[in-house]
UniProtKB/TrEMBL annotation:
Keywords: ATP-binding, Cytoplasm, Fatty acid biosynthesis, Fatty acid metabolism, Ligase, Lipid biosynthesis, Lipid metabolism, Metal-binding, Nucleotide-binding, Transferase, Zinc, Zinc-finger. It comes from Kolteria novifilia. GO terms for molecular function: acetyl-CoA carboxylase activity; ATP binding; carboxyl- or carbamoyltransferase activity; zinc ion binding. Binds 1 zinc ion per subunit. It catalyses: N(6)-carboxybiotinyl-L-lysyl-[protein] + acetyl-CoA = N(6)-biotinyl-L-lysyl-[protein] + malonyl-CoA. This is Acetyl-coenzyme A carboxylase carboxyl transferase subunit beta. Its EC number is 2.1.3.15. Belongs to the AccD/PCCB family. It comes from the Bacteria. GO terms for biological process: fatty acid biosynthetic process; malonyl-CoA biosynthetic process. Residues 18-275 form the CoA carboxyltransferase N-terminal domain.
Length: 275
């Protein structure tokens, strides 16, 4: 458009990030509407990624989180290097997510009911389980036993055990599972919440051991993903295999719960179990 001074006004574009597309229904969505709906598509209910801290805000009573073990940080005991040194990857992930590692733990309240809670974050190294994730889970479980609290663990791990830490990462599967065994013997309640994705060593250990296992809709849950299975053994998986709905049908999870309803569902379970 030509202005009166003879200068040409620059055409205004759409600001970046104002709109987003839903991968399921392909609808074009106003980003703020999705954020206000807890990162759930208002058209089809697709559950987008949500950070650990935002998930805690949506689950817990406002301002009730007492965060635990904030001084625990990952190290590089194997001095692992692939295309990039592991210590450099850690620094980059910490800067990107503002987390020490792929987990946030603490004590809070859901509708006035106290609990211990741990949430992994797939934005940090795909939510993979290294020594810090395992250690913080075990410490949280042991503190839940000491305080007679139920514990909720929300899993969002697309990376399983963290390969850069080798056997130190793999041993966390048994370590956390043993701690959950102690919780069970002490009469504690463990609710496992499976989100997209929950894969690898996480799915093969603590994420599958809940007294009650809840899952968000259409979450990818399993050990090896469809692409990995096809690449290794050339087997075409059944339609919907490793989704929440498939696993519910086959008895792997107890209930599928929308993110909007998760807070209420957990509080009802606490009431039912007398916690």
């Amino acid at each position: 458009m030509v202005m009166g001074t003879g200068q040409r006004r620059t055409k205004r574009g759409v600001p970046e990030g104002l709109w987003m597309s839903c991968p399921d229904c392909k609808a074009t969505l106003y980003t703020k509407d999705v954020e206000q709906a807890q990162n759930v598509c208002p058209q089809c209910g697709h559950h987008f990624y949500i950070s650990a801290r935002r998930r805690l805000d949506s689950l817990l009573d406002q301002g009730s989180l007492e965060e635990w073990f904030t001084d625990v940080r990952p190290k590089d005991p194997l001095e692992f290097v692939d295309r990039k040194a592991y210590k450099d990857r850690l620094r980059a992930e910490q800067k990107k997510t503002d987390l020490n590692d792929a987990i946030v733990c603490g004590r809070g309240f859901i509708r006035g009911r106290p609990l211990a809670v741990c949430v992994t974050d797939s934005a940090f190294s795909m939510g993979s389980m290294g020594s810090v994730v395992g250690e913080m889970l075990v410490r949280s479980i042991e503190r839940a036993i000491d305080l007679s609290l139920p514990i909720v663990i929300v899993s969002a791990s697309g990376g399983g055990a963290r390969m850069q830490e080798g056997i130190l990462s793999l041993m966390q599967m048994a370590k956390v599972s043993a701690a959950l065994g102690r919780l069970s013997r002490a009469g504690g309640l463990y609710i496992s919440v499976l989100t997209n994705p929950t894969m690898g060593g996480v799915a093969a250990s603590f994420a599958s051991l809940g007294d009650i296992c809840l899952a968000e809709p259409r979450a990818l849950i399993g050990f090896a993903g469809p692409r990995t299975i096809w690449a290794t053994v050339r087997i075409e998986l059944p339609k919907g295999f490793q989704t929440s709905e498939f696993l519910l049908e086959h008895g792997f999870v107890d209930r599928i719960v929308s993110r909007h309803d998760m807070r209420g569902e957990i509080s009802r379970i606490f009431d039912y179990c007398g916690k």
